[in-house]
Amino acid sequence: MQAQLITYQLKDISQEEYLKQMVEPDAPILAQVKGLISKVWLSDIEKNTFGGFYLWESKTAMEDFMNSDLVKAVVSRPYVKNVSSVDYEVNQKASLITRGIK
């Protein structure tokens, strides 16, 4: 199991338009991505930082996603900048104890 944190900033787009143009249409598409267990959408409006915390079945699933046309389309949007991704192996035994995973 792999955890991933993707963050980005927005440029020249209102919150309302960001929700309408990216979050609302992308959420159902992301829900269908093979190997994705969950995504938690994140936002810090004051720091202009947005993104998601992803939980993947495997590192391969995460890498397939990162090399997909979907990710290429998202990062090429003119209002998305400073994209960053970090990932971590999940300690499943400890995460089960603390209810981080089921």
UniProtKB/TrEMBL annotation:
Pfam families: ydhR
InterPro entries cross-referenced by the UniProt entry: Dimeric_a/b-barrel, YdhR
Top-level taxonomic group: Bacteria
Protein name: Monooxygenase
Organism field: Flavisolibacter tropicus
